[in-house]
Write a structure and sequence with these properties.
alpha+beta, Thrombin, subunit H, Pdz3 Domain, 4 domains, eight-stranded antiparallel beta sheet, six-stranded antiparallel β-barrel, 20% helix, globular
Amino acid sequence: MPLYRTSGYHRRTKRTEIEMAHPKCSAHMMNSRFFLIPKTISVGRRIRLALVAISLFLVLTGCRGLTKRPFAKNITTSPSQSVVRVNVTSQGYNFRRPWQQRTPITRVGIGVIIEGPHVLVTADALANHRYIEFEKVDNGEKSEAELEVVDYEANLALLRPIDSQYLENMMPVKLETGSVQGNDLAVWQVKPNGMVTPAMGAITSIELTRFPYRNFFLAYRLNSSLQYRLNHFTLPVIRNGKLAGLLMRYNAKEQTIDVISAPVIKHFLEDASDGTYQGFPLPDMHLVFAEDPQLRRYVGISRKTGGVYVDRVLSGSAAEKAGIQQGDIIMEVAGYALDSRGNYDHPTYGKISLLHLIRCEFHVGESIVYKIFRAGEEFTLQVNLDHRSSKDYIVPPYIIDTAPRYYILGGLVLQELSTSYLREYGKKWLANGPIYLLYYQVNQHTFEKEGRKKIVFLSSVLPTSYTIGYDRLANLVVTRINNKNIEKLEDVVEALKAPTDTYHKIEFEQRPKVIYIDPLELPKINTQIKKRYQLPALMNLNPS
């Protein structure tokens, strides 16, 4: 089909049609003098051919602005003065071989500067840190930093530079606690060149969600995407120029972001402000929904009455000291009525869990009033709120920033049980861990009532000429040594001072039940073990 040069009328007509179809490219089309359009073709086919030509034109020229980008425009002014890169080198421990450290790793995050000045980050990447460094995003100036306050349960940490002048002329960010569902938040990502690129996302829900070590706190959930190359272990989340939270978790597959909420951060900063950090209060109870009609009839409350059922009260807890008992129905807390699912009406967030009220609206040492229903009567109890650190549990939920405790006895590696040890069995440790040890971890509240302090167990046996036949033993709970009860590693040291019938007698809950070691041979065994396995020491009894 012959092609001819178009007339001025054809050029003007086609230019108008193209501008209507793609107005953003009109400037490019105005610079083109000719359109090759068949002379004898219909108007409809002319339009289709013109659109094909436009598509080719866009590919060749790279015309921009037709595709909506997922990120807002770059911010190049004040944000770079309100954040710093945080470079952390950490080195954890191998709890299966407690004398060994893992390979050091380095992680990078974006910390936000707050009043003080301090730098606020999430705590998970600071675990077992060896070196912390600040780096300004605009000019690369660096300074060694140190940890001020950390809460691994709430996943928050405060840092400060060694050089007190380092953060001068920087711009602290104030806290924004008024964010509600539907608000747009900006996740500040920082490019290698120091430019801040915010990813925008709307709050789709505000509710308690999972934090580290099976804790639950209030979090915002956003629907947005993050550029993988800009991901860091922590990122500030901003609303109207103020700090609304810190990024905690990003699900690239579902395009969701979990943000540590401002109320949690506010509680953390208030607690840390006086230099004595106490942590978030704990309810110290296991509560059960009271929706079952039979349960409600059993305890004697009406179908329309709210309240939650107390299934268990932790031994020695503030709740137990206040007089709360198993079988009670908690009707109100601090003047807020509870529904049968343990929710109360928050003035900003609506229905939300009682756990937020106890943990974030009050501080350790404060008292709140519980309204209790028991045996057909209602009365009030005053509870003095308290926090329980990890080391106070029979099976600590985590051991961080300190080496695991252990004692090697003739090749028998004895340890105190912790969840950190059980996590060595992988993400599915609750299913794949040693069943005897999991029993103690899950039911430790029962052993607390019995006065148990720790669970000492045989984690492994180092193969030597003196441990032939024992080398495959592992994960056995130690009950007694030389007829003395063992409740912590210090008890092992005391029990070994008095052998039974010239031999050390070690007893276990599981088979083989009893092992004997000749104390006269121990010096030879210990020398062989230290030389063969290059151990720095045969014990670590430093306080955890």
